[in-house]
Design goal:
Quinone Oxidoreductase, Chain A, domain 1; alpha/beta; Rossmann fold; 343 residues; 27% helix; 2 domains; 7-stranded mixed β-sheet
Length: 343
């Protein structure tokens, strides 16, 4: 098969690789679309230690089933699918208690670290566990479907925040996850929807995605915007897609007393927390990791036309242009939010 292989940091090549063979409980999928995640870009730079080379990256993908491995039922060749980026065992305590995103034996597609290696979907074929598959509605294209993974990450955070209908919600960050979180919050019927971002082009994308107001990513700017539409109280919920000291400070400044802050991003390894302030204001601080069963909700929202994915669909390129796409994303080419590769 043809694959885009990370040979070493900064060097991607399209090469011929052996076709993967699906093991027990797995299926072989012909990849029709695979989006580049920000974590893939970090891996291309040699950051994080989770993309040990050589490696086929990619975990945001969709395609058609080619063959079934042993012990697979309920699927057939030709079925249009997407799949969870987390390959989980289904047997550990976490999986048994509805926490497969925290599976004790989880592996992430397109990741190679000291503990495991799992080749990804920037290739013509990829082997995935059958229990991680989701059938695509007829109205959902392969390009839209490969965006289900980041959309589900945002939806998971939104669900952890609790009921949002009619509430004032602020999202910090307007990268892919920030914008997907914004779309998820909007789809759940929130009242006022705000976004904070440092760059003007991303602020514009947030407004295109449905933010009522998009402001500078500073504590004062977001706090002022939140108070302006809540009679001075502040946002009911703040969702932080960045995960830095600055974004956490901004979230705590913007949230109302008794409100909720959900942290999705983890740009910083450690941050300082103003504990006394959080306690006396009774702030609920929730962390969110990956997704946990939100794919069907997201696929239905896409199929029903309830979310605007247009900003993410403007760069659909052949796999052969993958190396150049990584460079363009790293250089923050104006207007380039997401790149979807087609093998």
């Amino acid at each position: 098969m043809k694959a885009l292989v990370l040979q070493e940091p900064g060097r991607l090549e399209v090469v011929r690789c052996p076709d993967p063979a699906p093991g027990p409980g797995e299926v072989l999928v012909r990849v029709r679309a695979c989006a580049i995640c920000g974590s893939d870009v970090h891996g291309w730079r040699g950051e994080g230690g989770r993309r040990l080379t050589p490696l086929i990256m990619g975990h945001e993908a969709s395609g058609e089933i080619v063959t079934l491995g042993p012990d697979v039922a309920g699927w057939k060749a030709g079925d249009r699918v997407t799949f969870d980026s987390t390959q989980y065992c289904g047997k550990c305590w976490q999986c048994a208690h509805g926490l497969h995103n925290l599976c004790a034996h989880r592996q992430i597609l397109g990741v190679a670290c000291r503990e495991y290696r799992r080749e990804g979907a920037m290739a013509e074929l990829v082997a995935v566990q059958a229990h991680t598959l989701y059938r695509l509605p007829d109205k959902v294209s392969f390009a839209q479907a490969c965006l289900t993974e980041p959309f589900a990450v945002g939806m998971h955070a939104v669900r952890l925040a609790g009921e949002l209908r009619g509430k004032t919600v602020a999202v910090i960050g307007a990268g892919t996850i920030g914008l997907m979180t914004l779309l998820a919050a909007k789809s759940q019927g929130c009242g006022h929807l705000l976004c904070a971002a440092h760059h003007a082009d991303r602020q514009a994308l947030a407004r295109e995605a449905g933010a009522e107001a998009s402001v500078e990513g500073t504590p004062k700017a977001l706090a002022d915007a939140a108070r302006a539409c809540t009679e001075g109280r502040g946002a009911d919920v703040v969702l932080d897609s960045v995960g830095s000291q600055g974004s956490l400070d901004t979230a705590l400044a913007a949230v109302r007393d008794g409100g909720t802050v959900v942290v999705i991003g983890n740009s910083a390894v450690h941050t300082a927390l103003p504990l006394q302030d959080c306690v006396v204001r009774q702030i609920r601080l929730q962390f969110s990791y990956s997704s946990e069963g939100e794919y069907p909700i997201c696929l239905k929202a896409i199929a029903d036309g309830k979310v605007n994915l247009t900003p993410f669909l403007r760069a659909i390129l052949p796999l052969e242009q993958g190396a150049d796409a990584f460079r363009r994303l790293t250089d923050r080419e104006p207007g380039l939010l997401k790149v979807i590769l087609q093998p």
